[in-house]
Amino acid sequence: MHPMRDKIAVAGVGASPQGKFPGATPITLATTAFKRALDDCGLKKEQIDGILTMPGTTSPEGALNYLRFGEAVGINPRYTGSKNMGGGTAGALLHEAAMAVHCGFANYVACVFGDTAATGGNKFNRASGWGDSWGIWGFMAAAANSAITASRHMALYGTTSRQLGEIAVACRRHASMNPEAVMRTPITIEDHQASRFIVEPLHLLDCCLISDGAVCVIVTSAERAKDLRQPLVTIAGMGQAYTTENMEREDWWYVPHQKMAVADAYAMAGVGPRDIDVAQLYDNFTSSVLVWFEHAGFCKVGEAGSFVEGGRIQLGGELPINTAGGNLSESYMEGWLHLVEGVRQMRGQCGERQVQGAEVCLVTGRGQALNCANATILKKG
Amino acid sequence: MTTTAEYTKPLPTLTDDNRPFWDACRDKRLSMQQCDGCGHIRFPINHICPRCLSEKFHWQTLSGRGTVFSYIVFHQVYNKAFAQDVPYNVALVQLEEGPRLYSNVVGVPNDAVKVGDSLEVVFDAVTPEITLPRFRLAG
């Protein structure tokens, strides 16, 4: 058995208000999230001896974000650093925090992300390749990479835009049950189809939000977590994998590393797809969720389009996903809120959107130009 | 697309590494680096072979033939230089010698192009210095 299985806990979670807050900065929002995470688990800030941060797209200090955050909250940590893998960062930092705790580098690690992307003016207009490469031909922005995946999946397997719409509809329905969500008005497949194209085949309602906000999760050992305020939620499995080559890999569009990351997490946890009660699947675009179903073994390669139909991925269905609304409808916290919702589902604190009897949750992350992937299995108790 | 003094779209920054690629395009040839150590034809341009790490290579003229590997159409204006062009297409092109690159399919409406269609390269001189490889449907 893996030596870290069930040994580490996510003891505290906290989020700032989500939306658009002119005048706020990534640091002001991050300290709010941090204080809420402390309140959530009952720790004092003096007990936090590890800080891991992800700089927001609008954080001026970039990779030195950990110094700015530590200064803001007056903590001089034993273990710290910042990492930026886009939407792959939340999971990667959670895993790093777990390793730091397991190895004794810190006892209580706060993982923090804050951003003001909605207010701060990130227009995502750079070329989606190194340097100036692909913008020469007009290929730019994050939607382009996911549109490449969607287009080829559609061509090879007959996946349809309406099937992508099922994912958007499910996330919005779940957000409608989440008072903290930014977009709470339910949508239909017809709304999805009628929304304008952004990068065809992706419509506006295939795309995530752009949001101001911050999130903090606090990691400690399962033993220490038992003495804290909340029901115990442990990390049963973790996996990461990366494809750094884009053009050089024929299967890059299909993000093969996602399958590796989930497989590692399953192996560490000793579970498989049939054990997953609820999943928080990284959804920068609906097409990203589509391939997660295949990579996580919920359906076969090419069959995700029909898998998502008929309410299967909604609350009350066989595999509810993104039960707080996800990046698509809750708030674009680059997957950090997926961790929060996973923890709350395992605690049984989700109110009307609680998946009854849920004991195992898969949380996934992905980032950059399809390059970074991670998976975490959270477990009740 | 025409050559004008006011070309405002992104252009490559010429370096010693990439200048032979763009010189060949101006000469209406699609040319990529072939490793002298393992024979791998690589793209994007790289000073070292990502397969065998050899630094020895030569520039190999390719056939310019390929197929549409994936295909998308930009409706959103991310860069105002493309405002007059939307909706415009970008294809991920699978070249017959192995490498892949992004480019545009010209000469047909956006909805006339499908994944799997055969392509051949054409050259578009957008400035006196830079000629872009684009593609048209091949019969």
Tell me the name of the CATH class of chain A. Alpha Beta
Widest beta sheet: strand line-up of chain B: 6-5-4-7-8
User: Which whole number gives the mean pLDDT of chain B?
Assistant: 94
Assembly state? heterodimer
Helix content of chain A: 25-40%
Q: Based on DSSP secondary structure assignment, what is the total number of beta strands of chain B?
A: 8
Number of domains of chain B: 1
| Number of individual domains of chain A | 1
CATH superfamily of chain A: Thiolase/Chalcone synthase
Shape of chain A: globular
Shape of chain B: globular
Average pLDDT of chain A, rounded to a whole number, is: 95
The biggest beta sheet of chain B, please? 5 strands, antiparallel
Count of separate DSSP helical elements of chain B: 1
- The CA-CA distance between the termini of chain A, in Å, is 18 Å
| CATH fold assignment of chain A | Peroxisomal Thiolase, Chain A, domain 1
**Helicity of chain B, as a percent range:** under 10%
Structure description:
- The complex is a heterodimer of chains A (381) and B (139).
- By secondary structure, chain A is an alpha/beta fold.
- Chain A is built from 13 helices and eleven strands.
- Chain A has one domain (8-121, 209-380): 3-Layer(aba) Sandwich (Peroxisomal Thiolase, Chain A, domain 1), CATH 3.40.47.
- Chain A has helices spanning 26-41, 65-73, 89-102, 117-120, 142-157, 161-175, 189-194, 222-225, 256-269, 286-295, 304-307, 326-329, 336-347, and strands at residues 8-15, 50-54, 79-82, 109-116, 197-200, 202-203, 212-221, 233-242, 278-280, 360-367, 372-380.
- A nine-stranded mixed β-sheet of chain A has the order 3-2-4-7-1-8-11-10-9, sandwiched between helices. Chain A has a two-stranded antiparallel ribbon with strand order 5-6.
- In chain A, helix 2 links the parallel strand 2 (50-54) and strand 3.
- Chain B has one domain (19-137).
- Chain B has one helix and eight strands.
- Chain B has one helix at residues 19-26, and strands at 31-35, 41-42, 57-61, 65-74, 88-95, 100-103, 118-125, 131-137.
- The longest helix of chain B has 8 residues, at 19-26.
- The model of chain B has no long low-confidence stretch (mean pLDDT 94).
